[in-house]
TrEMBL record:
Keywords: DNA recombination, DNA-binding
Family statement drawn from the similarity comment of this UniProt entry: Belongs to the site-specific recombinase resolvase family.
Pfam families: HTH_7, Phage_zn_bind_8, Resolvase
Keyword Hydrolase appears in the UniProt entry: no
Domain of life: Bacteria
Gene3D superfamilies: Homeodomain-like, Resolvase, N-terminal catalytic domain
Alphabetical list of InterPro entries matching this protein: Homeodomain-like_sf, Phage_Znf_bind_put, Resolv_N, Resolvase-like_N_sf, Resolvase_HTH_dom, SSR_resolvase
Start and end residues of each Resolvase/invertase-type recombinase catalytic domain: 85-229
Protein name in UniProt: Resolvase/invertase-type recombinase catalytic domain-containing protein
Amino acid sequence: MTTNTTPATQVERHACPKCDAPAGSPCRTGTGKVAASYHTGRFALVPALKAELTVKTPADRNPGKPWSAGAPVPEAIEPAPGAAIRIGYARCSTVGQELQSQLDMLASASCTRVFSEKISTRVKERPELDKALALARDIKAAAPHQPVILTVVEMKRLARSAAELMSLSSALQADGIQLELLSGPLQGVYDPNGAGAIVFAVLAVSAEVEREGIREKTLEGLEAAARKGNHGGRPTVVDADKLAIARARHAKGESVTAIAKALGVSRATLYRHIGETA
């Protein structure tokens, strides 16, 4: 029998789903002979060998010779998963916004590692989110039976649109990574497999509907304020008095550069206002 460290021995700890070779025996061909290579479905059951293209039958197993069952061995027992590993991600859109409240909630959720950044979701590439996902994938690849959870305070920290959220959920599903929301109506941990995939879709759509609702209310508020004569935006830096002085000095032939410096505004701003009243 081969040693316990060889791929062949690891494969033989499992029964073959294709040729029904029991645990402890090599695979067999359709004519009942020992196969030269183990069947893919069998060595794929070994996490360390999932990326292999082939696992050869050892020479002492007599490939090509009539097959006979080997000595029975206990089938592989799936390792018991340990405690879930949480990878936290926090984000806010602008430098002026604070992240500490999110970081505090992620710390309370026992996140092993937290990634944070101040960047708008309008930016497609978010380096810290990419790092969080990469770490989660690395842990999952090293320990396939270990639950790995991406934890965020709320869904809108991940994406702006349903399409983007669904794309992310598909990636999490492919990697076997769970998602945890610490606040909101769908607070909890969601496995992206089975019924969890439906929850992901609901989360994505609800997040976009909520965002569109906020946008609509904001626009309605601005329109209502405009009807009352209140217009949003930054106050002008060139009021009526400054504009009158600028026009008078400009009419006397003084340069725009000198006028702008005297009034404490930029040349571009002064040019724009003089042009608007010309």
